Amino acid sequence: MRAWSAPDVPTLPATGPSVRIHDTATGKLVETSPQGTARLYVCGITPYDATHIGHAATYVGFDLLNRAWRVAGHEVDYVQNVTDVDDPLLERATKVGVDWVALAERETELFRQDMQALRVLPPAHYVGAVESIPLVVAMIERLQRLGAIYQVETDLYYSATADPRFGAISRMEREEMLRLFGERGGDPERAGKRDPLDCVVWRGERKGEPAWDSPFGPGRPGWHIECAAIAHEHLGNSFDVQAGGSDLVFPHHEMSAGHGQVATGADFSQLYAHAGMVAYDGEKMSKSRGNLVFVSALRNSDIDPMAIRLALLRHHYRDDWEWTDAELFDALDTLEGWRSALALGAGAPAAPVVEAVTAAMADDLDAPTAVAVVQAWVDATVGTTGLADTSDREAADVVRRLLDASLGLAL
To answer: Where does motif 'KMSKS' region map (predicted)?
Structure first.
């Protein structure tokens, strides 16, 4: 599957510091330590509806990690999946009377357009669930040989406790796991399972649903093993950061890690990073609630995508927050002021801005602090206009490059 086009990213006059990020599994701020190329997996969309601001916040958030690593001198191998066959997609296609393949292709293309408009750096490997089925089959066969798979009717299940580290990522009590498992696509009450928390890795063929041949009979892959197999194929047995929204901590990331760890014996990921949830009208933004603000709708209303991105950057990626139109309009006004300052050519000295912004981004992707630093430079630049003896005549160009390289804002 193809990703979207990559923007040109400018270089900076200095190399940024090592990147620290909050690790969900330990609850601590941990310095990332890529051995050469940094390896990042961010869980992708199930393409049954358009990209909303909650999605955008997650992908912009971890785009900042991609950029901070690059500023620190690393190449980045970034992988993202597309769950282009799953229950929500099939249910939506049936409800609206369209072919599920056509629906998935349409919404995936819209997602590409939204990400490109927001200047999110594309993954090196953008992989659909359907095209990854051979990888899933191979991982299931490996887990079978290790005794971690059993059958219930035509479905195959993974024994969650096959991994002695199960629960180490989410650090949840079993009661909380059971509640979330049922709410987030699991089937804790399925008869015949050995443990209510065991998850399906191969769903046997159902009437009217797509299915693919396999050694286990016709069917389709489970959600969690899809990501485990894709990550293993493209990033190796263990990689640097597994990322996604905080609603993926359990069961998705816990289960995916378990699959990978039992299959390989290695830690699935060194760190687990999660973005906060975005609310609208007082509730978490979600398709089930229908309280969505679509990126494409904003773009089609002639809203500058850089204003959308700036509105997102004003919130720390780990925070839960609520989207408002007022924040978007304020971002539009802010960009106008920033562009005016950059147009002056000269400005307040740029070196302290580069140092402060790159330091903020290396400190758990602290975009709000970085934005405040840039605003202070804008205020100082506007305040020193005409004072050529105290201004830096190359400052505007350096700050412009900084905005793009570190924050993804092309002004």
So the answer is: 284-288
**The tokens of 330 are what?**
């304020």
- Residues 90 and 100: beta-carbon distance below 8 Å: yes
- 369 annotated binding-site participant: no
Within 10 Å of residue 317's Cβ, how many Cβ atoms? 26
Domains defined along the chain, listed by start = 20-280 (3.40.50.620)
Q: Is 245 annotated as a binding residue?
A: yes
83 in a known ligand binding site: yes
Cα separation, 326 vs 130, in Å, equals 41
| 234-280 pLDDT per residue, tens | 999 999 999 999 999 999 999 999 999 999 999 999 999 999 999 99
- Pair of tokens at residue 111: 């997602």
What is the pTM for the complete model shown? 0.96
32 is in an annotated binding site: no
Residue 316 has what DSSP assignment? -
pLDDT value at residue 384 = 60
302 is in an annotated binding site: no
Question: Does the annotation flag 223 for ligand binding?
Answer: yes
136 is in an annotated binding site: no
